[in-house]
Amino acid sequence: MISKNKIKYIQSLALKKKRKEENAFLAEGPKIVTDLLENFVCRTLVATEEWLKRHPHIQLSPKLLEIIPVNHDELSRASLLKTPQEVLAVFSTSSSTFDNKLIEQSLCLALDGIQDPGNLGTILRIADWFGIEHVLCSADTVDVYNPKVVQATMGAIARVQVHYCDLHKVIKDIQSKGIPTYGTFLNGKNIYEQSLSSNGLIVMGNEGNGISPVIGNLIDQRLLIPNYPSGRKTGDSLNVAIATAVICAEFRRRAM
Amino acid sequence: MISKNKIKYIQSLALKKKRKEENAFLAEGPKIVTDLLENFVCRTLVATEEWLKRHPHIQLSPKLLEIIPVNHDELSRASLLKTPQEVLAVFSTSSSTFDNKLIEQSLCLALDGIQDPGNLGTILRIADWFGIEHVLCSADTVDVYNPKVVQATMGAIARVQVHYCDLHKVIKDIQSKGIPTYGTFLNGKNIYEQSLSSNGLIVMGNEGNGISPVIGNLIDQRLLIPNYPSGRKTGDSLNVAIATAVICAEFRRRAM
What ipTM describes this predicted complex? Predict the structure, then answer.
């Protein structure tokens, strides 16, 4: 049995303002919820009684504060999804700090103004696959705790750390230490002919406008994913998540 | 001025049954519509008067049968988009035939049960970028003329040819001629350690279930996109469009 107030609270987390106030976010579906339970504090888990019976070990999770068993009708009323998925949960947001030294020691991604929740979620899933543990986001990038982003990560949000920051400042700082910065540009150099390091920052830009000029001017390695046959007239560009995947795959291939 | 019947007709093209009956489909937005005008017969183009004034050359297009100038309100009523984009158009579907020889001569993609319109659209955009001119689809793959697919291609649908067919039959036939077939499998072999040809068929599978067993059993080159560090526990898999991009990029890198 779930109260009307609890349903109202859960649904209010669709709003960024409310998520900020509460330092909380919503995740739905068995895969994402169980992935998140490993690393995030779960304030409330709402699940059908059938699902809870099939997952008795859930109750042993040390980071789980409250369980509310519901029927399908109650779950539907709490869910933001068209097709509710047996379980949803409210988690505390994490407030990890970021040290630029991490870019010196490993390969990191920076997102400059990504707007589409599906793109951000997909990019985190790519980062997860390719072992990129930290993703920096400009302040105008979509909120990682937006429910659509959370769903699109398919659970990767449990493993990849996302930090909102002043990208300009970070890049200035790491460049003063000689750490390489990479970005894709339609007038960049063929990525397959460039040397790629196993640390540094790969910057990906906004869906419509690419990397902003103020950031773009700082980047020292301007890369291009060549089309085929090279130089042939095609569509204007690849989707940003697609480009991120091809670039991350190539960096990791070199490091193998 | 656009008639109520015309609006009803345009909106009916959201339905696959209607598209089949009419051999027609809907595309919206200046980029996609102008791309399509190069290769497809346009039965009706509906655009704001402002847009038509700014694009006088449109009227010279030999494949354009009818132009209906409208105001913003009329456009909104005809459009399937939340944010209508100045122009939309009804095109005749193309009925090109496919010859398996094309797989002998070039690299082609085959999609086995792709369900999500956004994924199919994105895959066609990838094919366009990497110069893959023909994409074969199993009968249970989402309809390429679904308006959501058309929008997601960002115009690539104007250049990449899509053929619905019996994949099993095609693969049997090309294998009898010694043409290689590739697919991705979680237990496949590291793609970076395999030889890749510049012709043949790359098969990509359904979002949830991957390549169907009946097709999977036929594939002779089983590939894996390695995660990083290799073998590390991550999410279950990459999204199918993301995997398609990484694979196509690698095939084309080898052919450079």
Answer: 0.92
